Amino acid sequence: xxxxxxxxxxxxxxxxxxxVKMQSLFLDDTSGKGVSLDKAEFVRRAWSEVGGxxxxxxxxLFDNADVLxxxxxxxxxxxxFLLLGLSEKEExxxxxxxxxxxxxxxxPTPHRQPIxxxxxxxxxxxxxxxxxxxxTLGVWAEDLVxxxxxxxxxxxxxxxxxxxxxxxxxxxxxxxxxSFTSKEICFYDLLSKPEFNCQYKIQGLEHTxxxxxxxxxxxxxxxxxxxFGDMGGQVNAICFCSALIxxxxxxxxxVEEKSVIIIKWAELVQGRQSCCYTVRxxxxxxxxxxxxxxxxxxxxxxxxxxxxQSSLVLAWTGKEGHPxxxxxxxxxxxxxxxxxxxQLSLIATAxxxxxxxxxxxxxxxxxxxxxxxxxxxxxxxxxxxxxxxLLSFSKDKVxxxxxxxxxxxxQHVAGIFPKTHxxxxxxxxxxxxxxxxxxxxxxxxxxxxxxEAGRRVTSHERTITCVLYNALxxxxxxxxxxxxxxxxxxxxxxxxxxFPCCHGDAxxxxxxxxxxxxxxxxxxxxxxxxxxxxxxxxxxxLNAGCNQAEHISQxxxxxxxxxxxxxxxxxxxxxxxTFSQYHVQPSEWRGGLQHCDDILCAAFCPPQTLVTGSHDxxxxxxxxxxxxxxxxxxxxxxxxxxxxxxDRTLLKTKALPSASRCSPSGSECSLLSAAISGEKDTVNRxxxxxNRKEVALTGGADLVSGGRSGLIRFWNTAHxxxxxxxxxxxxxxxxxxxxxGSGCYLxxxxxxxxxxxxxxxxxxxxxxxxxxxxxxxLLSSLQPHTDCVTDLETCVHDDCLYLLSASADCCVTLSYLxxxxxxxxxQQKEHWCLGEMGCPQPTxxxxxxxxxxxxxxxxxxxxxxxxxHSSPTLNGSETSQSARETNWVDExxxxxxxxxxxxxxxxxxxxxxxxxxxxxxSKCSRRGYTRHTVIGVFSEMKIDELEAVGDLHxxxxxxxxxxxxxxxxxxxxxxxxxxxxxxxxxxFRAPFGERNFFTEKFLxxxxxxxxxxxxxxxxxxxxxxxxxxxxxxxxxxxLSGCVRKLAVSDVLMDSLEFLTFRNLRELRMETLQLxxxxxxxxxxxxxxxxxxSREKEERE
Length: 1100
Known about the structure:
Layout: H1 10-13, H2 16-24, E1 37-38, H3 39-49, H4 55-65, E2 72-73, H5 75-95, E3 105-107, E4 115-121, E5 127-132, E6 136-140, E7 146-151, E8 164-170, E9 175-180, E10 184-189, E11 197-203, E12 209-216, E13 224-230, E14 235-240, E15 261-264, H6 265-269, E16 276-281, E17 289-295, E18 300-305, E19 312-316, E20 325-329, E21 335-341, E22 346-351, E23 355-359, E24 369-372, E25 378-384, E26 389-394, E27 398-403, E28 408-414, E29 425-430, E30 435-440, E31 443-448, E32 464-470, E33 475-480, E34 485-489, E35 495-499, E36 508-513, E37 520-524, E38 529-532, E39 538-542, E40 554-557, E41 561-565, E42 572-575, E43 583-584, E44 599-605, E45 609-614, E46 619-623, E47 628-633, H7 644-655, H8 667-677, E48 683-688, H9 693-697, E49 703-707, E50 711-716, E51 721-727, E52 736-739, E53 745-749, E54 755-759, E55 777-782, E56 789-797, E57 800-807, E58 812-816, E59 821-824, E60 895-898, H10 909-912, H11 915-927, H12 956-959, H13 962-965, H14 984-992, H15 1000-1056, H16 1064-1099
Parallel strand pairs: 11-15, 39-43
Antiparallel strand pairs: 1-2, 3-31, 4-5, 5-6, 6-7, 8-9, 9-10, 10-11, 12-13, 13-14, 14-16, 17-18, 18-19, 19-20, 21-22, 22-23, 23-24, 25-26, 26-27, 27-28, 29-30, 30-31, 32-33, 33-34, 34-35, 36-37, 37-38, 38-39, 40-41, 40-60, 41-42, 44-45, 45-46, 46-47, 48-49, 49-50, 50-51, 52-53, 53-54, 54-55, ...
Helix pairs in contact: 3-4, 7-8, 15-16
Region (Disordered): 847-894, 1008-1033
InterPro entries: WD-EF-hand_domain, WD40/YVTN_repeat-like_dom_sf, WD40_repeat_CS, WD40_repeat_dom_sf, WD40_rpt
Keywords: Repeat, WD repeat
């Protein structure tokens, strides 16, 4: 059995073959049926037949699998135990997945002042809602496209004095609650017309509410709780009993349906509303309540404040009328934010003391966990409920992702947020869509998580074009085809920061660092070169393509000049003394036109030797000081400089149409044939070998070139001679390489993802007769990638030599030169730590029984199959193009880097197509590139410098409310209104009078008919009974009036059946009142009838 480490458990080291052997232990040799084994027999047989572990380990495995403690174990029990352990391990692996964020982008917002709240509204048409301090409400679609905006209205204050402090969404009734500094809470209907019509308004609050939260029961939406905290340290909760019917009672039908219903806070506290009641506490004292949450699982209100005492309060609610049970948690300097994890029953708090604390709601003595790592105040925390993760954001714009189980920080995101000293920050995480939104004053930023299910580990989303190492900041810098630059720590592999859209939609083809390693040069296919600092600020924009989209293959940064090449036969030079403006134009290269084809690469050797290589394989040696061409290096031995006549001839040849080029004559034919034959000699990279200045004088090699067909050549620049050449990768169309700063190792990579390390320390030190074809010693070979290698870079970090490799498989890999892989930048499982690892040196022993380089190498394996050790960060300035460890102290130290010359991106076609296709198609396509003009890394996000926010003070209308609100400034509880003292008849007529239900025409006709009837009745009674009948007439009139009232009440009751009420509960209450009054009228009518009967009997 293969063992991978003694620290692992025995069951973790079992292979498939070991499991097959283990299963055979439980089979009867004669019948083949399953049998059970006791502990002694299992340990003995497993140790002898399976092996790979000690007797104690097998005994421990038996005890763990025998969960019933029966002393016997069969294969079914053992297999169940192993499967359970593997499933738990898989679950832990999935839970440990680090979020991979897409590039941050800024959303266009309609807000002018700081955003006070951002939330998601669920339903048939999901939307996002945001509200700012000035009352602007933004409505966003599910894809975060701004649909519309509204101005929240409050007739209690003037529009210019409007100040929103918080918002809560009531999804079960499609309303929102908004709090204002006028000590009011307004409820707006999201479905009303006009939109966002204010329905209810709570007035007369004791203090200004600053935070709100709403919860409703998922099985019984009628049960809901609105909690809010205020500036006076008071936490209030309004418990609704019939939220779907009505939040508050309506005063009566006399009130218009669209009018705002005013609810006095004192009436709510006194229990005047039958459909809701309130609970509150003042445990926080005078400190402002920063955040409130109602925990439905605990039926408790959770709140926090900035005070050291009672920083976190958990109020357990009970039945109506019962006092709250309080639990107080104390935190030094207070708490700014909180969140609750339902499954883990944990409370997370953001502290002013730079710590994130985890609390058990039933243990108030101390936190169960303290997460340390932030350097400033923590302003926001949010749980990722599904993955048991915690997000925290601090005042210095650092986002951290924590593993709740291990209390470790698994991700650190910084450098992508706007830079400002003071700002109001909100954090909202929508777990269903894996979106993180952060607001900085009025700016809103979006971070989306890539879906990682079943995906391999990658460093970028697109093909990686270049990789650099910054020894000053100890960071690795990589760029991709999506115009994104990413910075990594070499010590751990963590992503430090990311600059998206550096060149808009144009691809970044190459990068370079200046000699101080404080400025980064990036070149795009838009023909521009930009100069950045490491905070994302663009200082200069070099117009290398002269307002044309050109492909730049390399940037060579020297002490006084910047050389750019890749698309024409002359160098494009920018002199550093002209870098006084943002837009920099190129200067003239004094050396003139010497190359016959496009210049692709260059290298510099102090003090003044410059070499350039072109597409036709020609290498020219220049004096960088005078910018004069000295000599040529060609494989055919022709080292003379091209004459002016030959130059004109070649220009004429290129200008001819394709048909006329087929049959040139004379000198034109020779030049054209040379150009075609030079296609296989394309030079795509040049490197000087360090510490070989004296070797070059004696005839040894001091320059390495590489290009197509996997061919590597060694040159002597002093004598213009080819010293050696060999095929490093036989079956590769092109090869890319680098040389370490000491000149000891040559590293080559091919289009299959294979990398080879060669020992050139003693290679070509002495001149030889002819060209040497034997290869240097091959030290090691590795397969760090599954696709073509696009860039290689060696770096020295903590006195250890590492290799950085980039590939079209979107991975940046850190490896030792001995052949072992440290890891991939951006890997999720675990990060490395270079300080705890050794530094193996490359030797020939690492090659082992490897096949000769001429033979076909084995098929590449994906990076997942390679053991991931630890990975580097950017340190050590051992670049492959210049000798950094030479003894010349007063010479120019260049900072150079070549472009991506391999891969399946747009950078590779130059080396795969024929000469004719290159001339007639590729240059035309480059001329058709779209121009993109951007300024700064964050230019597309339109980030402006945010205004600093000073100390917060109460506004004048809060200090002197009597000057703004008149009689409303008194915050004391209002005196309860007196009960109505009108007669029963007037009380009945007020809400249910005839004129409230019947038309004016109907009432007029009824009055005329009733008047004529009364007159005829009175005349008849006077005539019949005389004076004695007058009294009886009055009694009959009273009787008829009562009968009429009853008739009206019956008509009203019948009419109520056909009326449409919006509030059924209000109708029920009003009907009960009508019944009571009708019974009273009936009793009085019965008394009148009895009196009349007695008088009649007396008369008789």
